[in-house]
Structure formats: C-alpha cells, structure tokens
Design a protein that fits this description.
- The protein is α/β, with parallel strands linked by helices.
- The chain is 48% helix and 9% strand.
- It contains 25 helices and 15 strands.
- The strands form 3 sheets. It has a 5-stranded parallel β-sheet. Strands 2-3-4-5-6 form a 5-stranded parallel β-sheet, with helices on one face. The chain has a 5-stranded parallel β-sheet with strand order 12-11-13-14-15, sandwiched between helices.
- InterPro entries: Acid_CoA_mut_C (IPR006159), Cbl-dep_enz_cat (IPR016176), Cobalamin-bd (IPR006158), Cobalamin-bd_sf (IPR036724), MeMalonylCoA_mutase_a/b_cat (IPR006099), MMCoA_mutase_a_cat (IPR006098).
C-alpha cells in the first residue's frame, strides 16, 4: 500500500512504574507484570532510599515502602531482582541523588547472577537539577551532585556501554508549572551542565564525547494537549541535534539522536470523576507515539486511580493494556511520520524551538544551570508559571472535566469499594524494614564497613572517580544511609530556594478582595498586626508544588507566611510554630505518610503547650484517613478536589476564627 513502511516498526519498551512495601513484594509484582507482556522494568524507590536514609532514621518514619520499594543494602537489591535475569532486562531506576549507590548495588547483583556488565541495559535517572526545582529528593549541593553524575557517566562509558547513566528529566518541570518552552529550555540547560561537567572533568577523551552524548537519554512529561506535546518532542529533537553538533562537535548524526522515555502526566489526573483519567492517559500517550520521527523509546503510563492513592496490580495492568492495544492492534507502527510536511506542525515546532532557545541562552548567560538554581531564578519561574496555570483553571479558561466544568456525575462503580479501590501498604512493612536493616548491620564485618567508608570520604575530598569506592562500600555491606551519610560529611546538605520570593501576586480574582478583608478584620479582632500561617512539609515528601501555591495565595490574601521548604521533622515544625507565634499550621503530605506525620505534629504541639493551635492538612488522603485525622484533632482536610485556592484560604480564616471563639461567619 502506498505510504506504508516496508516493515512494521518495533514497539517501544513498555513499562509500569512499580515498587512498594518490600523488595520481596515488589519482586512478585515485577514477575506478574513481565508475565503480562511488559517489556522492561521501571523501579520506584521509597523516599528514604531516594534521599539517602535507612528505614530506621527519624525522617523515614511513616515513609518506608510508601511510594516505592525500600532498598537499604545489597541484600535488598538481591531480593528485588531474585529470579529475574538482569542480563536480559532493560531496567529503569528512578533514582537521583544516590544514583551512583543504586547502580553499584544493581551491577553487583547482576555480576552475582553471572551477567556481563557490558551487556546490562537500562537507565539511572540521575538528574539532580530538577530535584532542586520540583521533586525535592536532593541531598548534596549542585556542584557536588553534578560531580557524582559525571563519575557515573565516566564509569558506565568504560564498564556498562549499553547503560544510560543519566536521564535528563523534564517530567517534573512540567508538573511544577513549566510551559512547553520552559520545559525544553530548562531541560536542555541541565543537559549542557551535565555534558560540560563530564568534558571538564578530564575523565573522558574529547574524541569520545560522541559516545557520551549517545548514552544521554531524557525523561519527559506528556500532557493532555497532545498536539502541542508532539510539537514539543520534535522541538526537543531539533535543538538537541543542534547543541550536540555545535557545542560538543559530535559529527555522527546517530549519536546526536534525541532518545527519550516518557510517563504521562500523573498530576494532571483528578480525584473527581477519576474514570475521566482513562481518556486523559490515552490522549497523553498519543502525544509521544503518533510522530514516528519523535517517538518515545520507552513509555510508562500511570493508573486511573493515582490521584486517590497507590494503584493495585489490576490498575497497572489496565495501563499496560492501553499501550499494547495501540502498538499491536492499531496500524500506527506501519506508517512513516504522520506530520512530515505539515505546515501547522512545522510552525508550532518553530515557535517552541525559538522560545526554548531564548530560555536556554538566558540560563547560560547567567553562568549555567547551577547558578540559575542557586539564585532561585529557575524555581521562581516555575512557581510563577504554576500560579498562572492555577489562575486559568480557577477562572475556567482552562477546562478540567469533572472539576471545574461538567461536575454533575453518577456514582462511579470504580470507587464504590472505597479504600479497596487502591493498594494498601501494611503498616508492619516499616517495622520489618527497620528490623531488617538492624540485623544486616549486626551480621557484617564492622571493620570492613568502616574501612570502606573511610575510603569513600577520602576519595570524595579529591577528584577521584567515586564509583570504585562506592563498589567497595557495596561489597562491605554498607547501607544506603551510611553511604549518603559519609558524603554528607564531605559535601554537606543543601537547602534549595523555595521560589516564593519571586512569585507574582494574583490579579483579577474578584473573590480575593473579600478574603483579604476577612484576614485584616480577624487580625484586628485578635489584636495582632497580621495573621501568620506556617506551611509545613513533614517527612521526606518533596512534592512541594501545592504547598508553594497555598503559600503564594495566602500571602496575596494578606497572611504573613512562614515556609521553610521541604523535609522537616515534626519537632522542627512545632518549634517554628511556637517561635513564630503563628495562628495556623498547614501541613502538606502527598506521599501517603499522613497518618504518621500529622499526629506527630499534633502531639508535639500539645507537648509544647500549644494544643490550641489549629492544624489543617492537604494531600492525597482517602476519605477514611481524612476522618481519622479529623478525629485526631485536625481542623480541616483538603484533597486534590479542592482546587479553588482562594476558597481554601477563605476557609483557613474561618478555622482561625473558630479556634479563637470568633464568629466564623464574619
């Protein structure tokens, strides 16, 4: 038939992002998914693992096994991949700050299985820059973190040539508010920083930069505006080809090819009418598969119920089947690029390329992406863009079906089972992981551990590649927390800018003026200058977008906002509430640890003599858990269905008035 390819294209790698509870439980999930036709693995690690803490650390409380699998040592990695031949797998690991450590564990287990490292294929995400801007699982300062990334790249170039040692991740930039232009520009600025660091480290000969470039992959987000997403991906490819040719002298066009994997937009999924998420996921998948010249190499889809909680195996199967129907039942893979010669697509691509080039040059002119992180420029830009997106949604100019239009609905049989509609993590998981890591420490050679950590600290103070010392730590039985702790001693910990200082105020919100009047009047009745709100992020949950938007809108409404960023203990939040003499504490928890994190803050306030201080909570919180939190003393619980920020701020004023025996209706 005219226009068809001579041979049908091979499908992309199909994955589901999976991991929870324990290494053994996740191994069983992997095996089930592979049996259903999944062609690659995508490992979700829990927050303690991602941030370099062992399960028994204070900050890990309530977080173990919640959003991924805990991997504290070599024994956990062995259990995670037991019976799965790593030489035959393509494994993606969403891990950033401790990427070197997890790669060391993975490679060691592969070697124990008899695999040749040179045959192992997969990806370590290893993009630390976006962690400072969005997801929050950073540990060390930017320069030290980039050094670790460069060391991994140099190591894999020699030992694991089929491995993607870094996955430049624009996914979370879009979730944090990035427009397509910002997503492309900021991600490419990160890629330039990584490649410059590798080039300048002296570990890779200039003539091998093409080999480095061809192993750099990207991980992107695909939103529901799928025509725009197709253009974005074509723009990404055009700019990447240009940068790698002109800046790094890569002459081979195959090495300059833009290679990316994708997960479609999880934060775009809604709690209200969650069945609508199915069509959102399908449309978003089309944005990264329809264009053959810019098609994803690997796709993983979220499940319909991720706005409600952790998906079950059946939910993940549904998402896998979506990919399989498109790849195997449709005729998509039988044709050349569908958009070649399209005037509409060409114009849209050119527009994104032009805008992204301006953003990239702006970052490079200020000294590169590290400077743009440390000055707060990038974070402020994202907070402002997200605030603008929220305003469009609240005004109705951006339509979200079931949320701000067509909200009338029939009861959904998908959610009729209540809490049974999501995966439940057994609270005993954390205790088992804690006991397990303590037994592991007790059974190893303590002298060998200390010697390995001494070498790691010593090498970290030099320019030596840290991969050999890290592998020595793996073999000695060092834990995740000990490896990261040793490097914390050398590099210190980092606190990223919150981006609130540069965020713009709300304009054109007619209801905000009335809320502002209530804020002023309530402060006057209480005899204080201004109402003071503490926005707190307890535990290791680094998804701070919602907390930052609440802080911005509260500030616009006249509150004085105290926001110290992410990763705080209950004690730190309580101390700040007492020292700052706030009128209200707002806690944001999206990791599922709310039943542990929130009561710890409530207990701390009572112990500090401030049990009268009202506390509200926002997050992905099932109805039964919300009721438990209210019974424990929480004044209000907000979930993703509460999208009108000004209405939330108005309710916060009511909470303060109720707590102080003022007329709540005024």
């Amino acid at each position: 038939m005219p226009g068809r390819l001579p041979e049908r294209d091979r499908p992309w790698v199909m994955r589901t992002y999976a991991g929870h509870s324990s290494a053994a439980a996740t191994n069983a999930l992997f095996r089930r998914n592979l049996a259903k036709g999944q062609t690659g693995l995508s490992v979700a690690f829990d927050l303690p693992t991602q941030t370099g803490y062992d399960p028994d650390h204070e900050l890990a409380s309530g977080e173990v096994g919640r959003v991924g699998v805990p991997v504290a040592h070599l024994g956990d990695m062995r259990a995670l991949f037991e019976g799965i031949p790593l030489a035959e797998m393509n494994t993606s690991m969403t891990i950033n700050a401790p990427a070197m450590w997890l790669l060391g564990l993975y490679g060691t287990v592969a070697a124990e299985q008899g695999a040749e490292l040179s045959r192992c294929a997969g990806t370590t995400q290893n993009d630390i820059i976006k962690e400072y801007l969005s997801r929050g699982t950073y540990i060390f300062p930017p320069a030290a973190s980039l050094r670790l990334t460069a060391d991994v790249i140099a190591y894999t170039l020699r030992e694991m040539p089929r491995w993607n040692p870094v996955n430049i991740c624009s996914y979370h930039l879009q979730e944090a508010g990035a427009t397509p232009v910002q997503e492309v520009g900021f991600a490419l600025a990160t890629a330039v920083a990584v490649l410059d660091t590798v080039r300048d480290s002296g570990q890779v000969p200039p003539e091998r930069m093409g080999d480095v470039v061809q192993r750099i992959s990207f991980f992107v987000n695909a939103g529901v505006r799928f025509v725009e997403e197709i253009a974005k991906m074509r723009a990404f490819g055009a700019l990447w080809d240009e940068i790698t040719r002109d800046r790094y002298g890569v002459e081979n066009p195959k090495q300059r090819r833009f290679r990316y994997g994708v997960q479609v937009n999880s934060l775009g999924l809604t709690e209200a009418q969650p069945e609508n998420n199915i069509q959102r996921i399908v449309l978003e998948m089309l944005g990264v598969t329809l264009s053959r010249d810019a098609r994803a190499r690997a796709v993983q889809l979220p499940a319909w119920n991720e706005a409600l909680g952790l998906p079950r195996p059946w939910d993940q199967q549904w998402s896998l089947r979506m990919q399989q129907v498109l790849a195997y039942e449709s005729d998509l893979l039988e044709y050349p690029d569908l958009f070649a010669g399209s005037h509409v697509m060409t114009a849209l691509v050119d527009e994104i390329v032009s805008g992204a080039r301006v953003e990239l040059e702006k970052v490079l002119e200020m000294g590169g992406v590290v400077t743009a992180v440390e000055t707060g420029y990038l974070k402020s830009a994202l907070v402002a863009s997200l605030a603008d997106r929220r305003r469009r949604m609240e005004s109705g100019s951006d339509v979200v079906i079931g949320v701000n239009r067509f909200t009338e609905t029939e009861p959904s049989p998908l959610t009729a089972a209540g809490a049974e509609a999501i995966e439940q993590v057994d609270p005993a998981v954390e205790e088992a992981a804690t006991d397990g890591v303590r037994r592991w420490r007790a059974d190893r050679d303590a002298a060998a551990v200390e010697a390995a950590l001494d070498r790691l600290r010593a090498d970290a103070a030099t320019t030596a590649n840290l991969m050999p010392a890290t592998l020595g730590c793996v073999r000695a039985g060092v834990t995740t927390g000990e490896w990261a702790g040793a490097l914390r001693q050398v590099y210190g910990e980092y606190r990223a800018p919150t981006g609130l200082a540069g965020a713009v105020g709300t304009a054109g919100d007619a209801t905000l003026a009335g809320v502002r009047e209530r804020v002023v009047a309530t402060a006057r009745e209480l005899g204080s200058g201004r109402l003071r709100l503490l926005v707190g992020k307890p535990g290791l949950d680094g998804h701070s977008n919602g907390a930052e938007q609440i802080a911005v809108r509260a500030r616009d409404a006249g509150f004085e906002v105290v926001y110290q960023g992410i990763r705080l203990t209950a004690g730190q939040i309580v101390a700040a509430a007492v020292e700052e003499d706030v009128d209200l504490v707002g806690l944001s928890v999206l990791s599922g640890s709310h039943l542990a994190a929130v009561p710890a803050v409530l207990d701390g306030l009572r112990a500090a003599g401030r049990g009268d201080l009202p506390v509200v909570v926002g997050g992905i919180i099932p109805a039964a858990d919300a009721e438990a939190l209210r019974s424990a003393g929480v004044a209000r619980v907000f979930t993703p269905k509460d999208f009108a920020l000004t209405g939330i701020i108005d309710e916060l004023v009511t909470v303060i008035r109720e707590a102080n025996a003022l007329d709540p209706a005024r």
